[in-house]
Amino acid sequence: MAFFLGKRTQGDQLMYEAAAPLKRYKSYTFIGATGPFLSRLGATYYATRGRDNPAIITPADAERLAIEDESGAWPIIREQIEAEMLMTPEELDATRLDMACEYEPDRHHSSATWVGTLVPALCESEI
Length: 127
Known about the structure:
Blueprint: E1 2-7, E2 13-18, E3 24-25, E4 28-29, E5 32-37, H1 40-49, H2 59-68, H3 74-85, H4 89-101, E6 112-114
Parallel strand pairs: 2-6
Antiparallel strand pairs: 1-2, 1-5, 3-4
Helix pairs in contact: 1-2
């Protein structure tokens, strides 16, 4: 399966994994999609650094630059994504739960939201 960035009417993007671009995913409706990306790494790179970037013409460019780019905070983001790509679904769910519990709404985040984000009500402190 490939990764796509679905654009909603609100202007935000949601990352999803599917065989082809979708008009609807779960409860989300899209007005367009970007992809296919081979990995979450390439899709995230495009979502965070692809806008008005003349070096990214195709999804393959985003995949390549996601590995090569050493500027700013990208190496740290890349390391986290690569670690998540090696996790089992159970480990990934636990990691996302921890991240949801530590979420700070005033902090700047990626311009693409993973649609599998856990509900903060499931945080250990609220159980």
